[in-house]
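Batch manifest line 369
LIGAND: flavin-adenine dinucleotide
JOB: complex structure
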Amino acid sequence: MNLLHKDPLLILGGGLMGLTIAHELALKGRHIAVLSRRRSEAAGFVAAGMLAPHAEGLDEDLLKLGQLSLDRIPTWVETIESNSGINCGLKRCGIVVPFLNHQERNAYPTVLSGQALNRKELEREIPGIACEWTTGLLFHEDGQIDNRRQLMRALEKACVELGVHFEEGVEVLKLIKNDKDFHGVQIRNAEGNIETFHGNQAVLCSGAWSNQLLKEIPVFPVKGQMLSIQGPKNAFQRIVFGPGTYLVPRDDGLIVVGATSEKEAGFSEGLTPAGQKKLQKGIHSLLPCANAWPHMERWWGFRPCTPDELPIIGSSSLNGLWLATGHYRNGVLLAAITAELLAKCICNEKIKNEESSLLGKFDWSRFND
Ligand SMILES: Cc1cc2nc3c(=O)[nH]c(=O)nc-3n(C[C@H](O)[C@H](O)[C@H](O)COP(=O)(O)OP(=O)(O)OC[C@H]3O[C@@H](n4cnc5c(N)ncnc54)[C@H](O)[C@@H]3O)c2cc1C
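JOB STATUS: finished
ARTIFACT:
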């Protein structure tokens, strides 16, 4: 394999985490090679792109990590846009979570971060919202990024501009290691030939497939089906985050509708009638008029989940191998902070005490009891 530089740091998986970390490390002057099996299967191309630590009702350490990332996102996006020349579609549009009654609203984990809305205010924020929703919370700081059409493309371009080397169609078959150290990878190249590549530093960020390369990290897939509809431009501005279904309005009137959450589906590919029906029902329960709007596209993908639904970020049991996986429902939100902290660890840079103790909560070893 011709990796241009003799000893690049290997990024195992060219999805959202892989690209973000490659970009961050390339900014620090590191030589990077991204080994990517299939860009189109990355959840980074599937996600709705919500930046929603409050609307998702995250709590404790994950909420803290999400808030830290949300703070960094404007600068992170600015850097990607300036390195790529591509707009990422960041919008701090706010997210509305509707509720059937005040009790439900007041029990929401992030209630204190939101502005309470009565029915009239709810209607003003989301014209046409179904009448059973009597109250809501508006989270002003939450927003969205157009990962599917813009961010992923921008990250790829920014990486190329910074000299990151891409090997597309390359599947990592196994890690080469002894008890303590990472030594490289065995791969199947785009022509189907098996090759060995020796190296002493890598980041394992193979999304829902990460466990196939390293058994000690218990990452598994949670399938999500999505669809999009074309609404009138400016039908509504805020994201609506209902129980089980959300509607994400892009600037051009496209509304991204998500998502099923299918733990039992494993890696089974494709759309299902039941999944699509669930989304259709969800649209009706939130915004009945939207059921008449034309359907544009349908797609699916696999969220990388862990048993405690928290990401795995940091070192591994092998010297030289780093981990960034298991971001489950919040990978777009957490990409900025994950790349920043992991790149600092890899480059031996100082991390603030508070961030370092937070990072400790996402260490893989929590599963090692
Ligand atoms: C339906 C759905 C909706 C979502 N909505 C949101 C949202 O609104 N907000 C949010 O923050 N997050 C959302 N997410 C989550 C987010 O998309 C993920 O957390 C994030 O994309 C994970 O990034 P990743 O790089 O770990 O995995 P991926 O983006 O899936 O990338 C993994 C890559 O690794 C490659 N790979 C795997 N195995 C190998 C191998 N052996 N060799 C080489 N390459 C390999 C794959 O080809 C893939 O390209 C959503 C996810 C889904 C599925």
